[in-house]
Specification:
33 strands, Pectate Lyase C-like, Jelly Rolls, single chain, 462 residues, disordered N terminus, 2 domains, mainly beta, 17-stranded mixed β-sheet
Amino acid sequence: MGEKGTRRRRVLLGAAVAGVVAAVGAAGTIAFAEASFSTDFAGGSASGWSKSGGSWAVASDSGNNVYRQSKVDSEAARVFAGDKDLTAYAVQARVKPTNFSRPEGFVGIGARAQSATSLYRLVLTGAGKVELQTLKSGALQVLSSATVPVTPGAWYTLKIEVSGATVRGSVDGKALLSGSSTLLPSGQIGLTTGHATADFDDIAVSEIGALPAPSAPSSPVPTTPAPTSAAPAKPATGAWPKSKGEKKVSATIDVPASGLDGGMKRYYGIGDGGQGESQDPMFKLADGAVLENVIIGAPAGDGVHCSGSCTLKNVWWEDVGEDAATFKGGSSAEYLVDGGGARSASDKVFQHNGGGTLTVRNFQAEDFGKLYRSCGNCDTQQKRAVVLQDITVTAPGKALAGINTNFGDTARFSGITIVGDSANKVVICEKYQGVTSGEPTKIGSGADDTHCVYSTADITYR
């Protein structure tokens, strides 16, 4: 991070940011030291940043101000600052991805931005990669990439350096990426997302000298940095965790926004283990709550209910009754299931009754009906989205996802492994005509690049 102070030399960001200093410098939002620019948005202002796409605003994150992009369906959300004549410099920022609506979604920082469609950028993707990219008049080229564990809700420190024809990037001081490009000789700094939401903080810019030419500009760097907040380790596919004690439950456990860590204990005792839709849930999560490190045994009633946005991290269902989890938030709700697994779901594993986007990743299921179903006959219907990423399912199973195309639902798949289905009986994506009363009508299945989005490369059979 750039050191804040009052000693001034040549203003790195030029006249545009100099005007910002005059306007908000007294509030401590922006300061310069040793030809550098830094901001932590502490003054509550984002003046001096030009916007292109998305929904940007200064917001509070655990009592600290951040610059937030909150529109998850924005294909390209960007903000820029500084002078287009800037050449050799480094940009560093703390970045927290909060949701990806698809695996190719990204969050990151930019340098040498000439326009909204021409810049160098260092991004984290929903598919678990860090990429050093060139975007020139909308044409994308990946200069270098590496695999990383990208966890929504975790903070990462990204840094991109540009000098001459050399472009370099790092994550948390590790996994240095290098590339060579002469497409963009100068330009502004930027923050950017695509099909994702994120918080940004502690932006720092500094002048740099010459950089060594990359030895292999287009080769991925085979290092894997850990995120600021590491995701819990999950057992290998097919292995299930052992419980560290048991807890019998006689009534629904309300999980507040502050969350609940179950310490890998086994919770059981709600309902009768059947398919009755009137059963109470074992856990009911408040908006924004995190339920983690829990084994849910039988009977488990109607599993987990999310009243709004929620995160289920390392949660395991030994014997699904009605549904493993039901998502009931509004149209802007964001749900994440990260790790864990489910068995014996004769109907559905995940039921999506509300709106918003559900992302399920690093998950395994066996002996199930549908892994995901967008409600086919809820009284109130709306557009829903699901992202299934790095999923392993073991037959028997009927379908991975069922969606209502008439309400604009989307389902995106990547890294899907189907075990024991030599006849390819598991349907990847079923399409329905949803209703508000009566029963929905199945109207087809398969990829279409609009509602059911995947390719043959996204599905592996073994």
